[in-house]
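Annex B. Sample input.
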Amino acid sequence: MTVVTIHYAKTNLSRLLAEVEAGGEVVIARGKTPVAKLLPAEPPRPRRVFGSMRGQVALDDSFFEALPDDELALWSGEGD
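Annex B, continued. Sample output.
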């Protein structure tokens, strides 16, 4: 972690940003008192696309049949 003064940060912002992009952290201090920290920004999460798994999962008609009573009891908490 690099600690720099405000004056140095203003003068060398591009250099400090390159250090942060490389995975480092930079603390900006007023005198010897830390004031701010530069950290890498998290990349935005990719948007979910509805139907992106289409054609990769197959269900047959048995998927939609009712569960047997003993298994249904387990799901409802009655089989404990």
